[in-house]
Amino acid sequence: MTAPHTGGCRCGAVRFEASVEPHHISYCHCGDCRRASGAPVSAFVGFMTDQIALDGKALKRFENGPVTRTFCGVCGSPIAYTDERLAGHIYFTLGSMDMPAYFKPTHHAHVREQLPFLHMPDDLPRHLRTSVTRPDGQRPDGTQS
User: Which stretches of sequence are listed as region Disordered (predicted)?
Assistant: First the structure.
């Protein structure tokens, strides 16, 4: 499958399209993602914001520190998150993609927060913290660059 990649909410009030392949596909085990999704683990597909089109007057936002999560104001479906420390990036929820089976995660993030009963026996790299190097130099392994 090649771009464009499309997705949206359950009711169709929010739609998006990415014109390129994603730069990031991962699982996240952090408590914030868990609360936002209502699931024991979340999965995200990352793109550059200038490579996506987002349409939806019903799109709502919730800000928590540097992270802004978007969701449909009609049906409540989680759509994406942005992080002010990662300017120009957007991470769509895997479940909001029209073809989610295409996007196989390549690693796990925040495994130090993984629920003890959740077993995911794959061979993917596991990062104790973030899976994306932040501009402040924090690397996926938790060290500073």
Answer: 126-145
